[in-house]
Fold each of these.
Amino acid sequence: MTMNSVSHQKIIWLMISSAVGWGLWWIPVRALTSLGMSEVWAGVLPIFAAALGMIALLKWQNLNPLNLDAAAKYGGLLFGIAISFYGVALALTDVVRAALFFYLAPIWALLIETIWLRVRLSWHGPVGAAICLLGILILFEFQVALDQLNLGDIMATLSGLAFSIGSTCIFSGHRRLRNQNRHIRITSIMLISGAFCGTAMLFLFNEPIGSVDDIGWGILIVLTTGILLLAPISFIMQIGAERLLPATLALLYTGEIATSVVTAAIFLPYERFGWPEGIGALLIAGAGLAQLFRPQNEEV
């Protein structure tokens, strides 16, 4: 699938399907912690599995992942940091909070594309950013203080920032160099760098893997999550990153919040989920609607 063969409407639907996949990622992460695996390991190991799958694909296709423009390499690297930070955040904080803090990304993306890409500011971006901010304020019941933040919240926020910068790099770079296997190469860099970043976090947290009750079941969850979930949705993300402005991409991915909220409410009744979380999630997910009305001629 090349970027020129995919219509704008198909890209929108691809991003929505990918967002649903990211919204389900918390399920295998929590399944691993329920088996006795520590939080950081549960967030990182599926990324290792996805990276190994991409390395095998590179060998099979005889591709050099570094045969890319510099912007694409930086974009893949930042996407890798984003995915590793977010994986750990899912284990360290409530699922809904991790998703909501990550989706401050549209605000970062709007600022970056306006300054870096010199995109003309229209009403769609500021309206979406304002709705995102309102959702966060409602989440905290308008009582925002630094002592309310936990490490998972901070990592989710940094993940969203890395995602925004990375998508800007990929969007700007594809105009200068179009490569048929560019998506595979960027996905490989993303997942391999995510694995390296995850390794660094394992050393930083100095956390043992834990006592896993069923090793065979744990290995199966890690491999299937990495190869059948993370690798495909990461590949799909690259298609949108090339064709859609960063703020548009970020706001389309707010569909992940709806998936996370619904599935967490069903499977994690012990986690707090009241009216602040519900309304905050709806507002942030609804911010994507403003971007859907953005003129298509701003994309390529």
Amino acid sequence: MRQLIIFIISSVLSISIVKCYGQEDQCGRKADVYYRGVHTIGIEEPQDATLRNEYRKLSYVDTYIIQHLQKHPALNILPIARNTNIKKHGYRFEGLVSYSPDARDYKLHLMFQATCSENIVAESKVSFQLYPSWDPSHVVEEAMTKLMSRINIEELENKVREIKNYGLGGDVWGGMIEITMDKTMVKGEETQVLLSVVDCDGQSLTGKEINLQASGGIFTPAKIKTNSEG
């Protein structure tokens, strides 16, 4: 992703990189996980007063899930409303509790997705009986253990970089644009400039678009894409 360009100096040199597109994820920071909570489907409060306490335990499921997520060192948990439109890169986490008449049991279904896709990265399902008694902490423990065993953030991000050429760190979280040029020029001289876009783990990124501006000089061309050499 190195790119040679010509720079002509006209006065005092000041260079700014206007834009470099990257993923801005991982490499020195936690992955953002937007938690939408758990909602129930087809479960009504029982008329029998002796069973209502078990029904009300459904409200504890959210708390136990968040506690489990917060134990994960690579995740930054961000609770949001279910109808929130997520525009930033990260992950979406939500759950469903439903009743299956055919199986005559209840299910906790947890789903982990990338915000940029509707595809489910990982999911888990656990069946349980709500009545006559149940322990929501045990149900959540089983569901979360299954789910987290199927999630590897580093592997997910590396796969996205390989397929879509997204940077893990962008130019914010450890990624950088390296500039090599002669800084001893005087007014009217020109020189070649070597630019290299490097991800936060040191890997070069190809095909990245960079807009160049300078006070006291001119870049030719002013808009480039990094090539296959890094």
Amino acid sequence: MPLDLADPAWSKLPGSYGHSRDIVTWLNEAKIVGRISDERLGDLVNEAAHQGDASLAIYGVVPYLVEFALYADSQAERVRLLTHAGLLCADLRRAALENPDEDFVVTQYNSAKTQGAQMLSTLLVKLSDFSDFQYGIAALAGFLDKWEIARVLETLELFEGKLHHPWFQRPVSPHE
């Protein structure tokens, strides 16, 4: 169960802009409606990790994204929510922020990571789109605290049948 949205502990989980008021409002809206829109999900992710700079708010956000995925109407929605949650975990791990003082928050975050990894791993085998699969694997790595793998996969591109990556000297063909 995620941190109650009225819990004062949210004040100790600031987002990228120094507070968590917007995050709490957006999560509350999503709970009322029963889903989170693409626009709100983008706002939420941006507030929790602006341009990849992680904030402590991720500890509170990830359990909600995993919970929303549990009740999502479609496989695509579950994958979308879990992918964002896993990538936020990777951002948080990479930033090496100290745990918040609230033990309950850390326990719920770790529990959501385990549940998210289990849910996403069962969905990955059903994905046929390269990009969905790529980001899904990156998110799974994030849930498993393997942020380095997540980072490599996030920046990998498939273009004209070849893999491109900033670390590669040249594009790599799968047939090489």
